[in-house]
Design goal:
mainly alpha, Na+/H+ antiporter like fold, 17 helices, 75% helix
């Protein structure tokens, strides 16, 4: 019974995300309580859960395909930030929304990308490796890109962003890895609950932000839907094209496409609320990004799973790909 409930929570992740975001728009008081420290804690829980799924073998795997891993990392941290910046200018987004879009685009690939990779039957080991490295180095890359691209909109505290990322993202991941290393038995007992807890946390983050900015979300829905849609579509397409142009096999190109096109929206929302308090709209693009990238990812997974290709490196012992 419990297993069915946990499976339902995880399997219908996009439904809960869209449904709770809609409720937050219709009746904001339902979720306005989930703000401030709650958002930081929720993201920490999600990242801790990611760390609990990682083993020493996952880190050893980083050495097996250094070229593809490096391409995934560099493509993610160049294509997406620059695309976010260009879209902000092309769509004439107001400063708060432009900063939020750049912040979303400058975040690491989210754990949802591993789920999509798993469903799409691509190279899950490579997907997990790109997510891991992009997350561990986010404390450098995210503040750097925000300083370069968003600094002309509003003052950017790069050091503050760095520290926030270390504490709320990198720290919990490393703690989770340490727990998995030192207490694998305990981790095995709690790990079945991890995916469902992560789903609840991300849904609450999204609903909380929507409820606090309900009118702004409604007023700017058109532009933000277009901006988020273009950001992720271009990420998926350009990630695939770059990999193919450089001669990588189809399976690798599909994996990199997913890793480039999907972002850690929960992290973007938390960083926006914590580091840009004078720009309340900065957290809103993360909401649209979270919904749209999951819908696009689901479509891609459904299509590619029916046209799978050979050459997938097994995930082996890691369960990270089964997380939201």
């Amino acid at each position: 019974m419990i297993q069915r409930l946990l499976s339902a929570i995880t399997s219908f992740y996009p439904v809960w995300l869209i449904g709770c975001a809609g409720l937050a728009l219709i009746h904001p008081p339902l979720f306005t309580w989930f703000n401030g420290g709650w958002i930081t804690i929720a993201l920490g829980v999600v990242m801790l859960g990611m760390g609990l799924t990682l083993t020493v073998a996952d880190f050893q795997r980083l050495l097996r395909a250094p070229g593809a891993l490096a391409l995934g990392f560099l493509a993610h941290y160049t294509i997406m930030p620059l695309t976010g910046w260009l879209l902000g200018r092309a769509l004439h987004l107001e400063p708060g929304m432009a900063v939020g879009l750049i912040l979303v685009a400058s975040c690491p690939s989210g754990t949802a990308s591993n789920v999509v990779s798993y469903l799409a039957k691509v190279d899950v080991a490579l997907a997990v490796s790109v997510t891991l490295t992009s997350t561990l180095f986010a404390f450098v890359m995210t503040p750097l890109w925000c300083q370069l691209l968003a600094g002309h909109y509003v003052p950017v505290d790069a050091l503050g962003l760095c520290l926030s990322t270390l504490k709320a993202v990198v720290g919990p991941v490393l703690i989770g890895v340490l727990c998995n290393w030192k207490a694998p038995g305990l981790v095995r007992k709690v790990s079945p609950f991890g995916p469902a807890v992560s789903v609840v946390a991300v849904v609450l983050i999204t609903a909380g932000i929507v409820s606090q900015n309900a009118q702004a979300v409604i007023d700017n829905a058109g532009k933000l839907v277009l901006a988020a849609l273009l950001l992720h579509v271009l990420g998926f397409v350009l990630g695939y094209v770059v990999a193919r142009v450089l001669g990588y096999p189809l399976i690798t190109a599909r994996t990199i496409s997913i890793e480039v096109g999907m972002q850690n929206g929960g992290m973007a929302a938390m960083l926006a609320k914590k580091n840009f308090p004078m720009e309340p709209l900065a957290a809103v693009p993360a909401v649209f990004s979270g919904v749209i990238q999951n819908l696009l990812g689901s479509i891609i997974a459904a299509r590619w799973s029916k046209r799978s290709v050979e050459g997938v490196m097994p995930l082996e012992t890691s369960e990270a790909a089964k997380r939201p």
